[in-house]
Amino acid sequence: MEGAGKRIVLSIDGGGMRGLIPLRILESLESRLAQRGLARPLHRVFDLMAGTSTGGLIAAGLAAPRPSGGRSEAAATVAELRALFETEAREIFQPRLRTRLVRLIGNPLRPADERLDARPFERHLKERFGWTSMASSLTRLLLTAYDIGNRRPLFLGAGQPDGSPADDYYLWQAVRATTAVPAFFEPARVENLSQKREEALIDGGVFLNDPTLAAYGEARRLGWAAEDLVIVSLGTGFAPSRGFAFEDAVQWDGGAWMRASRGAPLQAIATHAQSAAGSLLAGRLFSDLGGVTYHRFDGEIPAEAEDMGNARPGNMLVLNGAADRILRDNTLRLDALADLIVAVHARRTPAGLERAA
Fold this sequence. Notes:
The chain is α/β, with parallel strands linked by helices. It has helices spanning 20-35, 54-63, 78-92, 97-105, 118-129, 171-178, 212-221, 246-249, 254-258, 265-289, 313-329, 331-348; strands at 7-12, 48-51, 94-95, 116-117, 140-147, 152-156, 188-192, 197-203, 229-234, 293-297.
C-alpha cells in the first residue's frame, strides 16, 4: 500500500549515444504523469537519481540546478537532453586532431588514436552546470566512477560506509568523470572538494554499468526501508544479434579489442554483460526481499545501433525507432508505473498535484 514513506529511485545505465533510449522513456513517463495531474520537473518526482556514464550525464542534468535558475530549475529538461543527443552531439564529440590527421594521411604503421577531443565536451559541461557542486543538487544524486590512481570504485554523491557525508565534487567534473570511457576519452582530472585533492577518474561503466544496486545500497544507507522503495531502472538497449566471430576475435591483439573503429569490442561486451548481469541480480534480489517495487525498462536494438560513439543522424533515427518499439511493448507497464508514482505523491501532499493544462 502506497504511503508517505515511499521513496522513488531512478537508475540509468551507461551506453553512450544509446542514452537516447532512456530519455525517450523518461519523456513518455513525464507526459503520463502530467496527464494524471503530476506536472512537475523530474527532480521533484524522484527522491534519488543514479547514473553511470551517459546515464550519469542524464541524471545530473535532471538533478543539478541550472546556474542561472536558482534552486527551482534543473540544469536540463528531458527535451533539452534529447536535443543534445539528437542534434548537438556531433559537434561536441569530435575526434582529436591527431586522430583526424592520421586518418587523412593514412599511416599504415600507426593506427589512429581513437580518442575523442574532451575539450568541446568539457566546455559544454561548464556551460550546463557552471561551478556548482554535487552538494547543491535539487534531489539526491549518485554517479559512478573509477579512481585509477587508487584502484577503487567510487560512488560520487553517496555517503561513506562509516556514516560520514559524501565527498563533494563540481558537477561538471563529476559528469566528465562518469563519462570518461576508456578508448573514447582520456581520464578526467577532478577536484575532490571535501578532501582538497585531485583524483584521476574514468567511466564507472568499467565496474557497474547498471547502477541499480548502488542506488539501492545508498537508499538503504539513508535509512529508507526496502518495502518503501520504488526503483525505476532504465537500460540503453542491447543487440543480441551482434556477436563477435571466433575467426575474427582469435586474430585480435590487445589494441584491437579496444579499438573504437571495431566498435570497441571489449567495452561493448563488458557494458552489456554488466547491465545484463546487474538487472538479473537486482531482479532476483528484490524478488527475494519481497518488498522492493522494481520496474526495469530495456529492449532490443538493431546491431548497427550498438556503437556507443555513433552520433550520426541516421543512427539517431534507428535509436528513435528502437525506442518507439520499447515504448509500445511497455505501454501498460508505463501506465501502471505512472499511476503508482502519482499515488505516492498524492499520499505525501494531497493538495500538491498540479493539473495538466
